[in-house]
Amino acid sequence: MIAISCAFAPSVLAAERPRLGVLVVVDQLSVDAFDARVPKLTGGIKRMITEGVRFREARYEAAPTITSVGHATLITGTYGDTHGIVSNEWVDHATGKPTLSTEDPAYQIVGRPPGRDGTAPTWLRAATLGDSIKLADARAKVVTISAKDRASILTAGRSADVAVWFDGVSPFFTTSTFYASEIPAWVTPTNEAIAKMVKAGTFTWGLPGGGFTGQHLEPVMTAGQHEFFAERPELQPILDALEVDLAISAVKALSLGKDDAPDLLVVSFSGHDRTGHRFGPDSPEAISEYLVVDRELGRLLQTLDAEVGKNRYVVALSSDHGVAPLAEFSKAMHLDSGRIDGEALKQALEKEADTALGAGDWFGYSRSPGLYAATPTARSKLQGIAARLTAVARKQAGVHDLLPLSALLDGSRVGQFAELFRRGAFDGRTPDFVVVPRPYWMNALSDSTGHGSAYLYDRAVPLVFFGGNIKKGLAGDAEIIDVAPSLSKLLGVPAPASARGHAIDFLFR
Q1: Under a CB-based contact definition with an 8 Å cutoff, are residues 430 and 394 in contact?
Q2: Are residues 425 and 291 in the same domain?
Q3: DSSP string, 126-178
Q4: Predicted pLDDT at 15
Q5: Please, what is the average pLDDT of the chain?
Q6: Same-domain check for residues 322 and 340
Q7: Average pLDDT of the residues in 146-175
Q8: pTM of the prediction?
Q9: Is 226 within 8 Å of 255 (Cβ atoms)?
Q10: pLDDT digits over 87-102, tens only?
């Protein structure tokens, strides 16, 4: 009897193993906000909590906590010192050129005229979960969907079938020629629906003088204005629903989870981040946006039940980073809080460099708050006076420390923050100096709130697993790099090659 049981155990396990893994990312969701909003839930997130495994929290044990970095970490199971994604944008040390995390002019955004705005996962230096799945079984299908290009591309990796995102220039979902020469057929109905909404005035796009050419709008705006329009608050709930429309279309058109090959679907809801930046994490607008995600995720789970079958899919829900409380609210609570004037700090650092080294051109372009890049010719000189620059920075309102990249890489700067930023640093990309704000201080003057720090409100995010035959209940703490290895084990494939995380035992007991 025992011998027979053992002989059949592998086939039983294979039959019970999920064939579709789904990673859901809610952009800019701290575990505190997640916990506070549980009583308001009625849809998919509530179902996942009720029927799945809810962890107390999952931490990013690295910094900075930024969208591109978080998505890369979630899907590779390792940190920026390995996967190479250090921010949404950085200055390449060799060329001094600002570089987007998914920029590559060798490829084109499908549907745009040929130009220099190509995009691809070129800068990602570690294999993703999708890459691992594809290596394990060439029949596997990997699809990623988001309103942000960087969220979709970085979770897709190099071997995905396609990464799809909402184009910030023309209002439709598209992809890169890295993945496909044309927009997949299953995306077309959603793009047609967008065109009808624009024509009907559901949301406006463009200025007088713009018009339609087939499905393609030709508005009269600069690229920067397009990006701003794509982030309008009223558009985000629409994009949430459209992302789920696309996910459902992909499941049906590609038969995800239908055979014995493991498949992967990633859906990253970007609207929550855009709304939070605009209004603050505890605002009615941010909560309303979150409830739309909850509702739409419920619709996706119902479709997966019907199309794939219960116990044949597993979903992990988490976030790419948390968010700081509104600085003005923290200050009203009598906390030491405020906003760091990044330009004033930069000028103070330049003045000190002039004093120490003579007049010169010291710091170049830097879009990310709290991250300062030296010009290529000034890099070694500024590192030589790092102690003086640090002393100047510490005198600025709201600044706790200034971390020189050289000290992070060689390990000479020690302490909690140095270690966290060291795990997120990649030589040749990470800016030369990293500002560590004091708690509840923001490295920004414009947005209502922000993220990027090494404090727990930015590093601690929710983690819920649902579906398959995983154990249900309330679990303890986890590390975010455990998500990809856990999904790998649930799907029966090797973890991503560079993963330093581990499959979470609680899921399998």
Answers
A1: no
A2: no
A3: S--HHHHHHHH-TT--EEEEESSHHHHHHHH-SS-SEEEEE-SSSSSEE-BTT
A4: 46
A5: 90
A6: no
A7: 95
A8: 0.92
A9: no
A10: 999 999 988 889 999 9
For 458, the enclosing helix (H) or strand (E) is helix 456-459
Name the least confident of 15-24, 82-91, 380-389: 15-24
Strands (E), 417-472: 433-437, 441-442, 460-461, 464-467
What is the torsional sign of CA 419, 423, 427, 429? negative
Q: What are phi and psi of 36, to 5 degrees?
A: -65, -25
pLDDT digits (tens, 9 = 90+) for 273-312: 999 998 989 999 999 999 999 999 999 999 999 999 999 9
Lowest mean pLDDT among 198-207, 215-224, 395-404, 465-474: 215-224
How many angstroms separate the first and last alpha carbons of the chain?
24
| Beta bridge pairs of residue 392 | none
Q: Rounded distance, CA 291 to CA 236, Å?
A: 12
**Residues present in the chain in total:** 509
Cα torsion angle, 299, 301, 304, 310, sign: negative
133/142 Cα distance (integer angstroms): 8
Q: What is the CATH number of the domain that holds 356?
A: 3.30.1360.150
Regarding whether 291 and 231 lie in a shared domain, the answer is yes
Q: Do 276 and 338 belong to one domain? A: no
Looking at the fold, whether 218 and 126 belong to one and the same domain comes out as yes
d(CA 133, CA 136) in angstroms, rounded, equals: 5
Token pair in block for residue 269: 């809801």
Non-local (6+) Cβ contacts of 486 within 8 A are: 316, 465, 503, 504, 507
Q: Is the same domain home to 356 and 472?
A: no
- pLDDT of 116 reads 67
Rounded CA gap, 248 and 458, in Å? 31
Asked whether the beta carbons of 454 and 417 are under 8 A apart, the reply is yes
In this structure, the dihedral spanned by the alpha carbons of residues 232, 236, 237 and 242, taken in order and rounded to 10 degrees, is: 130
Asked whether the predicted pLDDT for residue 227 surpasses 60, the reply is: no
Q: Is 411 left (phi over 0), alpha (psi -120 to 50) or beta?
A: left
3-state secondary structure 243-292: HHHHHHHHHHHHCCCCCCCCEEEEEEECHHHHHHHHHCCCCHHHHHHHHH
Q: Do 339 and 317 belong to one domain?
A: no
Same domain assignment for residues 162 and 222: yes
Query: What range does the domain containing 476 cover?
Result: 2-85+100-326+468-508
333 by Cβ neighbours in 10 Å (0-12 / 13-18 / 19+) ranks as exposed
